[in-house]
Amino acid sequence: MKILVTGATGKVGSRLAKRLAQRGHQIRALVRDQTRARALLADGIELAPGDLLELDSLATVVRGVDTVVHCAAFFRGATDEQAHAVNDLGTQHLANAARAASVKRFVFTSTGLVYGPNGGRPAREDDPCAPLDGYPKSKLAAEHFLLAMAGFDVRVLRLPFVYGDGDPHIAEAVPMMRGFPPAQRMSIAHHADVAQAVARVLEASSPAHRIYNVVDDEAPELATLFASVAEPAPDGSNPERARAFDSLMDGRRIRDDLGFAPQFPRLADAIASGA
Questions:
Q1: Is-above-0.90 flag for pTM?
Q2: What span, in angstroms and rounded, lies between the C-alpha atoms of 77 and 168?
Q3: Cα separation of 267 and 253, whole Å?
Q4: Which of 64, 138, 212, 249 is within CB 3.0–4.6 Å of 254 for a Cys-Cys bond?
Q5: Domains of the chain with CATH codes
Q6: How far apart (Å, rounded) are the C-alpha atoms in residues 206 and 103?
Q7: Number of C-beta neighbours around residue 42 at 10 A
Q8: Active site residue 163
Q9: Distance, CA of 84 to CA of 90 (rounded, Å)
């Protein structure tokens, strides 16, 4: 199928676009900076200039597309206003343009942080959400908008902390999480398993307006996550800030509905394989 991927120069989107192209799909990437996105051309990915905040630029981008996979987001460093503009209003712009162009399916990558602190009890997709920060609040608002679009085939994938595949995400997050409790656990997923989840949602017949948690089998303690990049355990000096990230997820629904099975069920598996 012909798929528009947004966020194709980001951590998740760049790896996902390449893997979807390798599966034989025709990929178009929404990009603001074509120079920065030039590496995508080597994988046969079409570059389409546009901006989520410029509604007029999106009509051409979605024309002729079967499916949209929307990964673009403003996370670290975003003010609450910027997160709302890009992650909520930008998603609304893209979804409206896609529906007007008769796009068949819209896959939205959200975040497990929408659940808010759950005290170590893995949240299921129908559980109430009470996020603390502007980023997950903006993602949850976008979810609500999409799922209220009648007659439009929407799927929501709530992602955890994504790692692996050459992504320095763990090392980059260490300074932010330095004051978190070392025994706090974090739901994670390898980039390969995020791509598998997206592919299953794209290629399988499953109910529209469905939410799926995407998560590996094991949620490691932060001390273990830090050790994987040769960092000492976090010192626990800022437990209040850590609450916003204390959101574990239950991943049974996507396994039951779509047969998802993580290629890397545990962090240790990815480390052992050099992935």
A1: yes
A2: 17
A3: 21
A4: 212
A5: 2-168+188-219+249-266 (3.40.50.720)
A6: 17
A7: 8
A8: no
A9: 8
Residue 232 corresponds to which amino acid? P
> What gap in Å lies between CA 82 and CA 205, rounded to an integer?
35
Point out the catalytic residue in the list 115, 135, 163, 212: 135
**Identity of the residue numbered 122:** P
**Of the candidates 106, 121, 112, which has an alpha carbon nearest to the alpha carbon of residue 139?**
112
Q: Pick from 159, 149, 153, 250: which is nearest to 210 by CA? A: 153
Predicted local distance difference test score (pLDDT) of residue 204: 85
Cα 30 from chain centroid? 16
Contact 20, 43 (CB under 8 A): no
Full pLDDT tens readout for the chain, 275 residues: 999 999 999 999 999 999 999 999 999 999 988 888 888 999 999 999 999 999 999 999 999 999 999 999 998 888 999 999 999 999 999 999 999 999 999 999 999 999 999 988 999 999 999 999 999 999 999 999 999 999 899 999 999 999 999 999 999 999 999 999 999 999 999 999 999 999 999 988 767 899 999 999 999 999 999 999 999 999 999 999 999 999 999 999 999 999 999 999 999 999 999 99
